Structure formats: structure tokens, C-alpha cells
Amino acid sequence: MDAKTLSANFEAREKAANELRALTEEHAGKDMDASAREKETQLLDAIADYDGRVKRGVEAIKASESVSSLMAGLKGTGSKRETQDKLAEAATQLRSLGLYEAATFAPEKRAVDTTTGKNVIPRTLFGQLLAEAAQRSTVMRNGASILTTSGGESIDFTVVTGRASAGIVAENANIPESAPTTVIRSMGAFKYAYATAVSTEFVQDQALDLVGFLVGDAGPALGHGMGTHFLTGTGSGQPKGILGAATPATATWAAGAKDNTVSNALIDLFYELNPAYRSNAVFVVSDKTAATLRKLTDANGQYLWQSALTAGAPDTFNGRPVATDVAVPDDKVLFADLSKYKVRLAGPLRVERSVDAKFQSDQIVYRFIQRADGLLTDQLSAKVLTVTPKP
User: Fold this and answer.
1) pLDDT tens, position by position, 280-324
2) pTM score, two decimals?
3) What's the CATH number for 247-338+380-386?
4) Nearest by Cα to 388 from 257, 200, 277, 210
5) What is the rounded distance in angstroms from the CA atom of residue 385 to the CA atom of residue 265?
6) 188: exposed, middle or buried (C-beta count within 10 Å: 0-12, 13-18, 19+)?
7) Span 67-162+179-240+342-377: which CATH code?
């Protein structure tokens, strides 16, 4: 039983208890008729049933960890007890927020496990929410560089648009200067916000995993909002997405083209990307384009698409991982080293609580605010193929 179902059972039990209380008060000092007795029996049975469900639900939650902690634990090492203490502290803070008060959760600065080379378990609400958000963002999930700053002031970055070159120089001859071609671009901070409403009972009941529920609700919402812009953002009032910043490829195919034409264009796209980036590059496509890629075969009838043999590993096309995202247009194929896309998280995650917004329904509203921006810092690291005309 998940936290949402458990909360529903709590609310249903409370409703039945209130009805029983009202029935008892209505017949105080006088005998109940047959209809009232029958209703009393039904309410008592319902309360007993809900008590059993709640007990089983609480035991199940106590015996398991939140999804975020479990996923993080599989990737690294860390103190389970310390993680639980940190999250319990965050839950207490979220429950006790007063009127016009806000809580902030900053990125956790921790060392990398020197044995495995992996990050240790995220112990804070910020770390767990970021992990959930990253799972919903194709760019973040596939290797984008994440920069955290204390504020949201503009930061200038030197974006590489062309490489320097070296040549043979005769003895005693002057060495010609060669510098990469660059432009200066700025990263700011756009405000991403999400609000969710939960019942007062859900917040008050200490047995429920408030942090796990809010992380599982807000993390995907923030991740989807940011992730879409990191791919297709225009740069005007939102981050500049990698699709718009990538260098257009000369390779293409016409809508409705046969298998060989499509596969040859994709091979051309692969070799258009500078060799320095190919070994870390990923194909990013829409689901419709992915379906087209899965059907392509070589001269021997072997599929160029290879499904992953182990859980969690990506499928590959022509030896490189493939990621799909609903935000990618059907006429685009991105082939890029996503580590050259920089994601900036500006300032702490801000969480605020309101008991007024949903006063009539006795609900508490939590809102999450995180400022972020994104920028491709090396234009040579990404190529985008455009199908003509758009299918």
C-alpha cells in the first residue's frame, strides 16, 4: 500500500467515525430504531475494516524505504540511519511550517566514494528531489553537467564554436597563433514552481512518509518542466534547449524514405559529429522516430537497433545509446555528447506551506520553487538532423 492509498483510508475512517458520532448524539437518551441500529452496525464494521487496512499499510511503509532512497542506494553507499534521520528532520520541518514561513533545502556537499567512484546516497530532501527530477529529464539523466550556485545572478560562459589547430613549424620560424572560435553567452535563473495539496490528517500523522510523498509528487513535475526546456527551449523567457543550440547536420532524409536511405543518413550523422565526442554521444529521438529506427536492418538483415541485455542499460543504435523523449519533434534526430550541456540550479530549493488556499476542504498546500537554467557550452558536441519535409 502506498502513502496515497493509506491517506485515503485514514480519511475514510475519519468520515465513518464522524458519522457514528453524529448518530450517537442524535439518539442520545433514547432508543435507536431498527434503521439506526443497522446503520450503527455498518459504521462500526467499516471503522474496524479501515483500522485493519491502516495497520497493514503502516506496517508495510515501516518495512520499506522510499523509492528515491532505494534507487539511490543501488547506485552508491552511505549510512541508512543517517539518511533516515535527515529525511525525518525534513519531514518535521515541513510539518511545522507556520504562516508566511518558508523552508530552504540546499545542495548537499559530500565526497565521492573513492572505492567505487560513485556518489553516496542522497540524504537530504534536495538530493532526493533532484534524483527524481533527473529521472524525468532526458538531458539530465544522460550526463548533463550540473552546476549549483547560491544565487541566480547572470554568469557568463565561453561557448566553443570552433577548435584551434596546430601545424608544423620550421626551425627558428615564428609559431603562428591559433585559438578556438568562441562566443560569450550568459546563464541566468528561471523560476520553476509546483504546488500540491494534501489533507491535514496526512501531514499530522507521523507514521506517513511525508517527504517521500512530496518528493515523488514534486520531483517528476519539476523535472518534466525543466527537462522539456533543456531539450526544446527557445532561450527567450526560458532556457536555450540543446536542439536549438546544436549545429545543424547536412545529413537528412525525406519523409517516407526507404530503409536504406534512412539508415545511411543516420550513419552520415554519426560521422558528422567530431570524433572527440562520438564515444560519449547519445541519440535522442521521439517515440515515432525510435519506432522507425528499430525496424532498420543492414545488408545481412540484422537490426541496427540492439535492445539492452541487462536491466537499466540503454538500447543502442549503431553502437550508441538511444534515449526517447516526448518533447523531441518527430522531424529531429539529436546526436550529442550531453555532458557539454550545463544545467544550472540557482539557489536552494524553496518549500512553502499554506493552510489558507484550501481552507474549505481542510487541505494544506505545499509549493516547491527551484530556479534553473541550461546552456550548451560546446556547439561542436551536438548535431541535429532534420527530416524534410516534416513527417
Assistant:
1) 999 999 999 999 999 888 777 788 888 877 767 889 998 899 999
2) 0.68
3) 3.30.2320.10
4) 257
5) 9
6) middle
7) 3.30.2400
